[in-house]
Amino acid sequence: MILKMFRRTSFLTNKVLNEWDNRIQCFFIDLSGTVHVDKELIPGAINAFEKLKKTQTKFKFVTNTSKEAVSTTVQNLDSLGLQLSKQEVYSSLTATRDYLVRNNLRPHLLVADEALEEFESLDTNDPNTVVVGLAPMKFNYKELNECFRILMKPENKIVAINKGRYYKTRDGMSLGAGPFVFNLEFATSKEATIVGKPSKEFFINAMKSIGHEDPSTCVMIGDDVNDDVMGAIEAGMHGCLVKTGKYRPGDEDKLFSVGGDPEPYPAKERCLVANTLEDAINLLLP
């Protein structure tokens, strides 16, 4: 089974690289699980970042992390030796704030205290929307019940910063925000609007933030086969799955059954598998 999977993955990698040729002009890279796990960098991450900068290729780090503000994420990575600027990161928190502003929504924020600064300028009086991010210390009956009561008004909405099922920590896999969003959906018979990955709007806005317009010349690199890779493919980009973070053996098999046939290639031919971010960058920027 392992040999068979290796042969399929190797065939796919060679086929994809041949057909992508020089098409890739812009890189989007996940952070948690791809660049780092908690307070530890994944080996090779700094080398990959330095190679990207030397080639002057367009890139942006895109993250579904909703438990802390972008400024905190940047500071934490800086302390690990990866020196990013805030402008080099596009966050689901940023996307959510922009969505709320565009739609004149007043949020009740079920987010971690460390993420609140991203929403400081918003009107939170008489909320008409419940915004759910990763807030482990607030996922309790009292807090969720308050959200439920707000959502019992027919006109009020649920906005999910993301709907991630789980993520990788030093202690192992941990529940993401998704199961708690589902609880509120189930209780209220309402469907949440997902603002972060894998929503198509997130990828398109990330692309706009870097001054790029053609998704077929972009690649998204990440450890989540659903939110990172398949989400990017649905948005018209290429996708590269790395075997770090939340990756589980067999995730790559999902890429062989991706549906649709968008131009310029069938979706399955816009997928790549690599061991790490460094390996992915070395494959795409030889």
TrEMBL record:
- Family matches, as SUPFAM superfamilies: HAD-like
Q: Which InterPro entries match?
A: HAD-like_sf (IPR036412), HAD-SF_hydro_IIA (IPR006357), HAD_sf (IPR023214), LHPP/HDHD2 (IPR006355)
Which Gene3D superfamilies has this protein been placed in?
A: HAD superfamily/HAD-like (3.40.50.1000)
Q: Which domain of life is it from?
A: Eukaryota
Keyword presence, Phosphoprotein: no
Q: Which UniProt keywords apply?
A: Magnesium, Metal-binding
Cofactor entry: Mg(2+)
- Keyword Metal-binding found: yes
Tell me its family.
Belongs to the HAD-like hydrolase superfamily.
What is the protein name stated in its UniProt record? Answer: Haloacid dehalogenase-like hydrolase domain-containing protein 2
